[in-house]
Amino acid sequence: MSDYRDNDTFIEVLLQERDELYSQLSRFRKMDHRAFEEAEKKNQYLTQVIQEKDAKIRQLTDQLAWYRRKFWHPSSEKFIPEDPNQRRIDFEGLDMLPEEEAIAKEAANEVIIYERVKPSKEKKHPVRLPIPDDLRREIVIIEPEGIDENWIRIGEEITEVLEHKPGELYVRRIIRPKYALKRELQKGQEDDQGNQQNICIASLPALPLPRSNAGASLLAELLMGKYLYHLPFHRQIAMMKLTGVSLPASTVNGWFQGSCDLLRALYDRLREIVMSTDYIQVDESTIPVIDNEKNRTVKAYLWLVRAVIEGFVFFHYDKGSRAQKVVVELLRNFKGAVQADGYEAYSIYEQKKGVLLLGCWAHARRKFEESLKEDKDRAEYALGQIGLLYRIETMADDQKLDYDQRADLRKRLAYPILCAFEKWIVSNYPKVLPTGRMGKALRYTYSLFQRLTRYHLDGRYRMDNNLAENAIRVMVVGRKNYLFCGNHDAAENAAVMYSLLGCCNASGVNPREWLTDILTRIPEYNSNYNLDLADLLPHNWKKLKSHQQTRGSFGANYNSS
């Protein structure tokens, strides 16, 4: 107070400080109000941004689902002739519509009810099959001891026991008598060229291999031993040695190479026939081959093509390659349906005009079986749906439906289940770990789903590729025994033999009888281009065998399709 002279001065100072404080307060209030407004505006802006981003996310999610369908479902059907009966798996949205769910449940219930009411097959009790009557009987009579004139024979008890003798090697000696015309009749006996015909001898029958003493039956047995019974040549040589005949390995290998060269033209004709069909299954499997350049065994591949309806089997070897170019060259001129597994090399046929690519449900089912321990609930559901599809095929088999009737049954029952299963896959994939077994199973199945569902377009098409895998299994068993092929030529020879013997199995032809007969006949067909080698293929050989009258006329008048 001492600094102020009087109260008026003191009041003036206080009023001045008040005004300054009030001014500062007003200024702070304005600043707070502007900050609040800016914060509110920023909040509104951020809210709008979030809403826009949410909308963008939904839009992008929908676009992603659409692109997935387009990417995983290439529209290759545009190259197939239009057919109003061709139905494609497609949908709008990921959720099952009530009517879709009802149709799928109705189809599943019909399959389940059929299984319940289907009469069970009566179990057959094992019985001893009778011994064929055409087998040679060796009679052994055993008389009881102590029989004299006081006993009368009233009958007999007969017991037949199968016995075995080791394979027999025998020599077929061909004797051709030579005749000379009597001296007094020789004059004037001339042929068309003016040469004297004083000596007469029968022509030597055609032998499979020139300058070789191996008969057709022996060659047939060697080929069957290796490619049907999976016995390497060194084992067969050891077995023949026990019968008293020693054959050098080089001789046997030479016979084998000559036989394959003899059959190669027939093998090429088989390829033409297989590729002329309109429904094939394709598969490939490894076969170890010694690479002489690398001086080691390499993993090579043998390709299989099976004409499903006809049952023809064709193996192909191209220097052991598994590259896409091999299958492109192999199926260059093919038109029709190609069924294969999920190997990426086959994806090129999604875009090839005139080719319909089919998938294999057995491979998809295998993926879900592998995920059972990881995600039991989803795996069991997927396996149940696939099981329903297979049970529909069982229904068709039990009712002995033709191809058209089978296609109608698939349209009515399988198609709704396929639609429901596809939506289940799409809705469950985001819920699982992509790198897990279930994630891989869902991704594999959905990426091939359009291929997998195309079997319903035609009653001839099968659900899986099992026929091809069964046909290639004989090669898998063989490689476990002979371990490897000595070179690429040996692998090509293996393809020739597996093809022809596989056709014998598919046609129900005895390969021993067929090979023995064909090895005798084929030299004539190879040298006479007027004869069709298709006559000698197992299915045609079986048809014509019963009508054969003479060996020379067999197949000569037959025009194979």
Could you outline the blueprint of secondary structure elements for this entry?
Elements: H1 7-72, H2 98-117, E1 178-180, E2 199-201, H3 216-227, H4 233-241, H5 249-275, E3 279-291, E4 296-307, E5 313-316, H6 324-330, E6 336-339, E7 355-358, H7 361-370, H8 376-398, H9 403-428, H10 437-447, H11 449-453, H12 466-482, H13 488-507, H14 511-527, H15 538-545
Helix pairs in contact: 2-8, 2-9, 3-14, 5-13, 5-14, 7-8, 7-10, 8-9, 9-10
Descriptive account of the structure:
With 561 residues, this protein is α/β, with parallel strands linked by helices. It has a domain of 103 residues. The chain is built from 15 helices and seven strands. Strands 5-4-3-6-7 form a five-stranded mixed β-sheet. A hairpin with a 5-residue loop joins strand 4 and strand 5. It is elongated, with a radius of gyration of 41 Å.
- Rg: 41 Å
Could you give the order of strands across the largest sheet?
5-4-3-6-7
Low-confidence stretches: 71-93, 552-561
- Total number of strands: 7
Distance between the termini: 132 Å
Largest sheet: 5 strands, mixed
**Which structural class matches the secondary elements?**
alpha/beta
Beta-strand proportion: 5-15%
Shape: elongated
Give the proportion of residues in helices.
40-55%
